[in-house]
Design brief:
alpha/beta, TIM Barrel, 7-stranded parallel sheet, 47% helix, 12% strand, globular
Amino acid sequence: MTDMSDFHGVFPYLVSPTDADGGIRTDVLGKLCDDLIKAGVHGLAPLGSTGEFAYLNRRQRTAVVQATVEAAQGRVPVLAGVASTSTADAVAQAKSYEKLGATGILAILEAYFPLKDAQVESYFKAIADAVDLPVVVYTNPQFQRSDLTIDVVARLAEHPRIKYIKDASNNTGRLLSIMNRCGDELRVFAASSHIPAAVMLIGGVGWMAGPACLAPRQSVELYNLCKDGQWEAALALQRRLWRLNEAFAKFNLAACIKAGLTIQGYDVGDPILPQAALGADDRKVIAAVLRDIA
């Protein structure tokens, strides 16, 4: 029996498939989730960055989480992304996703005005106080106006439900600092901006990233090689897979993964406006990468 509160391994950041009218294509999302689980992924993360949470309304977000929970059928944990500029709204989202059956909360801070450390800290603690679920703190300074300092991270790790962090800082040294500071109180997930094998080597527990949607079996194989300490084989596979991370960094996140999934036969639709879909030449780049890593 899988321990649904023990998060580790490969968590693909799911896309949010939409039709021309903005409706969520729950059948497409359900098939993607089922295929990812059959490929061996360890969990699913709807409404992460690749899920375009910043472009979805409440009804759409709810549909994405509900479809993911229904598709998972308790086979793997579902970490529902909660994001807002308002603490009250974030708390409401977290409570509603808990009722829908999410196994954990991926807490994201959106900010318009700059925030001080105490305000950033209070936002995440309010979410964790509101639910009876494990909370993963997600920090991505490339997109967020307010980042988390190491001191804030350490204080958040003292909360009984904040036991994980996904850090997309591009700074692997920062991850090691977090591990040294927080020890076993806070387990670290890498992002697509990091080299997963390197993060596993220094003590990470896995990674959450959009590219895992396109190469789930290879991603799981990489995780297993790392866990088994087969570092030579792991690094050889990591070099192959890194081309996908490079493409992810080059293009719009959702556009890249949605283009790749479309090439693989999933009718996920285009990125939500005002984002633009990849052009024909860029899609050829993604197609070539997918052929190379297959």
